[in-house]
């Protein structure tokens, strides 16, 4: 059987993000630019995902002006610095059972990250889902973090954000 390469279909793959703060949460999507997953004898053996940070969308804010303002803030240096770093990447380092470990690079900063993946392979089609919990402060996103700013009260934004990943890929 050997190694098979599956190309990520960016139009059928997606990341749902959730960021929480004291007073509630925000959520939205971010798109894949591309990438590939390697299967060895039917099991994931490696791969790389390329994420388009410029594609970030906020779904819970319906007012266009507020949404645009929030998007501008997420794109700024307080968060993703999308002009300087239009891509983020996740490179698979190892897989053990359902556990995928790899290196996540955001804003040119790389840290290990891992998640449990559910993978289905049906002929030449692969679907994978997983949930990553990321500490944004490790990637120089310190805006309103309790680690760096005191007395924020209701304005505190939690450091951890969730990425719910859905990947569709074809061989």
Architecture overview:
By secondary structure, the protein is mainly β. The chain has a single domain (3-170), classed as Lipid/polyisoprenoid-binding, YceI-like (Lipocalin, Beta Barrel). Helix content is 7%, strand content 61%. The chain contains one helix and nine strands; from the N terminus they run ββββαβββββ. It has one helix spanning 64-75; strands at 3-8, 14-21, 24-40, 43-58, 87-96, 99-106, 109-122, 125-135, 157-170. The longest helix is centred in the middle third of the chain and has 12 residues, at 64-75. The mean pLDDT is 92. This is Lipid-binding protein.
Question: What distinguishing features does this structure have?
Answer:
single chain; 171 residues; mainly beta; Lipocalin; Lipid-binding protein; Lipid/polyisoprenoid-bd_YceI; TTHA0802/YceI-like_sf
Helix content: under 10%
Quaternary structure of the protein: single chain
Name the structural class: mainly beta
Q: What's the name of the CATH homologous superfamily? A: Lipid/polyisoprenoid-binding, YceI-like
InterPro entries: Lipid/polyisoprenoid-bd_YceI, TTHA0802/YceI-like_sf
Protein name: Lipid-binding protein
Summary of the model, kept short:
The protein contains one helix and nine strands, in the order ββββαβββββ.
Topology of helices and strands:
Blueprint: E1 3-8, E2 14-21, E3 24-40, E4 43-58, H1 64-75, E5 87-96, E6 99-106, E7 109-122, E8 125-135, E9 157-170
Antiparallel strand pairs: 1-3, 1-9, 2-3, 2-9, 3-4, 4-5, 5-6, 6-7, 7-8, 8-9
């Amino acid at each position: 059987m050997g190694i098979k390469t599956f190309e990520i279909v960016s139009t059928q793959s997606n990341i749902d993000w959730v960021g929480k703060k004291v007073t509630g949460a925000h959520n939205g999507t971010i798109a894949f630019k591309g990438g590939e997953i390697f299967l060895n004898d039917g099991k994931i053996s490696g791969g790389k995902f390329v994420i388009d940070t410029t594609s970030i969308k906020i779904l819970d804010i319906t007012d266009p002006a507020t949404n645009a303002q929030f998007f501008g803030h997420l794109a700024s240096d307080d968060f993703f610095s999308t002009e300087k770093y239009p891509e983020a990447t996740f490179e698979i380092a190892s897989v053990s059972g359902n556990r995928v470990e790899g290196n996540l690079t955001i804003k040119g900063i790389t840290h290990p990250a891992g998640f449990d993946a559910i993978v289905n392979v049906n002929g030449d089609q692969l679907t994978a889902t997983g949930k990553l919990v990321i500490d944004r402060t490790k990637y120089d996103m310190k805006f309103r973090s309790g680690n760096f700013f005191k007395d924020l009260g209701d304005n505190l934004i939690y450091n951890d954000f969730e990425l719910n990943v859905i990947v569709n890929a074809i061989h």
